[in-house]
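re: that chain from earlier
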Amino acid sequence: MVRLTLMNFFLHGLEESDIKRKDTVAGAEDEEDLRRYDVILTNPPFAGKVDKERIKKSLPVKSTKTQVLFLGYVIDALKPNGRAGIILPEGTLFGTNRDDKEIRRYLLEKCQLQAVISMPGGVFQPYSGVKTSVLIFKKKPVPKLDENEKVWFFNMQGDGSSLSKAKKFGPQYRNDIPKLIELWQKNRAIEKPYSWFTPLKEIIENNYILSANAYNPYIEGEEKEYRDPKEILKEIKENEKELKTYLEKITKIL
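^ sequence. v structure.
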């Protein structure tokens, strides 16, 4: 992983970057754990597990799930007014177990959640097909749950790829990233069916769930195209005729 990271930075003209190899959420704590940052961008491992006895004592929420531990670490590692962007598996955003719910409550208390960008499953294929979301938040100078806040949601249906294991890119695939950037630059504008604001009060009352599907105001109002009933009836009759033929053949054999 260190070699891949070094190569990636080198290819982007960032060869002077300081890369450290360490376990961020487990093992002995050192002075690095006390550092605070203005900006953090991260994509932590989704399916990792950590033994309880190895979890760093400074982390706010104790869990065996690496994504919960990483989110807690990122929140605490920000300076006041520092900003972060983190990619998390969808399960962390709506999970009902204690640690998932507690880390969401901790996030909303310590930070102003500015955006939840829901991405479709398959974005990280061929490595993982899990559905993910991006959380963008800002550390509050004073921790407090403010029910007057609102969270901006963006529902991304495609990233310009096939979203399959045989990953392909091209203009034939839906790409909502340009629309995401456009609306974000317009001070998080609202545009159907892409984006909307949800009051923090509603999120708190809903067990701190942060999954976009839980608040999407456009789902019920979507227009759906249905097949012509005559076409469906014709298909049923043809299937019945074919089934009757097979039954007659089986009856003769018996």
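The CA atoms of residues 65 and 158 lie 28 Å apart.
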